[in-house]
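User: Sequence in, structure out. Go.
Assistant: Echoing your sequence, followed by the structure tokens.
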Amino acid sequence: MHRRRFVQRALAAGIATSPIGRLLANVEALPKTPSDFEGPFYPVGPRNRASDLILGEPRDEVLRFRGIVVDVHGEPLAGALVGIWQTDRLGRYLHPRDSSPGERWDDFLYWGESITRSNGAFEFRTYVPAGYGRRPPHIHYKIWHQRKHLLTSQVYFREFGGTRGASRFPDKSALQTVGLEPFDAGVVADFRVVV
């Protein structure tokens, strides 16, 4: 669908006033989202095909981690698989190579998947991760479409100093640093991925 027609339809449907609609607003000649470290703790074992990483009652403030996937022309990418993985609130991964002390949370999945909707949107229910060592808090993600891997990157949080030198890229301004906004009983982070 042509970008102008998509935006007109979004306006008519009331999407443009939503957070996802605002992410679609300025989409002329979009630069691709840069890749970033996969890291040493990419999940192993059977995939968690859930977008809600919290089992039962939350033990901490809930993060609604949501975004939209578009191409360089701003066209939403429907049916893309977005996979995330992260630490718990104590900075530990659920991975055999993570030697951080302490029991892992059995009521937290640590990683999950979401499929983008027709407007390119996806959402996860999780926690704000903790940093560890010199690494600031971040969430890793991968995107696939039609079984093709498109991107591996990370999202950092403004409230914790963004990348704080953690990324391998000299131009850190190109990387995704998002803010946390109050939402219901927790916080929300919205961002856009360009593939």
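User: And one key feature?
Assistant: The CA atoms of residues 48 and 112 lie 5 Å apart.
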